[in-house]
Amino acid sequence: MTLLSRYDALLLDLDGTVYRGHAPVPGAPEAVAAARAAGLAIRFVTNNASRSPQEVADHLTEIGFAPALDEVSTSAQAAASMLADLVPAGSTVLVLGTEALVEQVRQRGLVPTRTADGAVAVIQGLSQDTGWRELAEACVAVRAGAVWVACNVDLTLPTERGLLPGSGSLVRALMAATDAEPLVAGKPAVPLLEQAAKSAGAQRPLVVGDRLDTDIAGACNAGMDSLLVLTGVSTREEAMALPEDQRPTHIADDLSVLSATVEG
Ligand SMILES: [Mg+2]
Fold first, then answer.
1. Catalytic site residue 15?
2. Using alpha carbons only, what angle is made at residue 171 by residues 60 and 99, rounded to the nearest 5 degrees?
3. Is residue 197 located within the same domain as residue 152?
4. Domain limits for position 204
5. 140 alpha carbon to ligand 1 midpoint, in Å?
6. How far is CA 100 from CA 156, 158, 179, 221, in A?
């Protein structure tokens, strides 16, 4: 019995799980290839809303994973889909984020804009170019009652220079100015994981990630089994310190556990 025989899809986190910086986690490409060969659907599931699915796929291809485009699930895709269910087709949507997010909005039959004029919704993802003027436009729209969806609420962004402000830090700025709260797509909220599982046609998905507060908490929130790999942020001790219903289903040093023989 292996973990691969128990599940029909892997919902894989990226940073700290399949790669670190510019290099794959050792053994990760082989582990993913083995899962594919065993017939599992694969989804690379990222909270990052700055890059397009194609850019994510290109990066994964460079480091040895060779994903199909539909194997990539981003929080920008999930947030745009959420929004499309909440507002009428053709609605004007204020986009705080990159052109990749604008494109997701456009693909769902909504009309992206950069000002509050006519905006019935605000969609927020991280862009390194977002400034006060854009936040002010979003503030006007949200205060006027616009639906507000955030791609993720990660407070920090890990970089070579250390932790920098993440999407969640800018979401908090807007929360402070509006007394409103956004709907959230990315982990640990459930829409991104649910959409990834649905797109894979999965009945028994396994969420795989390196962070307890996003990947594992998201799996718990979505009622999915999870595997914590110790190749990134969280430790076994931190996992075991959590209440039982918040712990990962499985904990392992790395992805090689997927093909290893396990009990029962
Ligand atoms: Mg991670």
1. yes
2. 45
3. no
4. 3-47+187-259
5. 34
6. 20, 20, 28, 27
Give residues with Cβ within 8 angstroms of 249, minimum separation 6.
206, 219, 225, 226, 227
Domain boundary among 137, 169, 184: 184
Give the residue ranges of the annotated binding site for Mg(2+): 13, 15, 210
In angstroms, the CA 96 to CA 124 distance is 5
- Strand extents, DSSP E, the chain: 9-12, 19-20, 23-24, 41-46, 72-74, 92-96, 111-113, 121-124, 147-150, 156-159, 162-165, 183-184, 205-209, 225-229, 250-252
pLDDT in tens, 163-211: 999 999 999 999 999 999 999 999 999 999 999 999 999 999 999 999 9
Cα–ligand 1 centroid distance for 242 (angstroms): 19
Of 162, 184, 206, which one is at a domain's C-terminal end?
A: 184
Tokens standing for residue 243: 């209440």
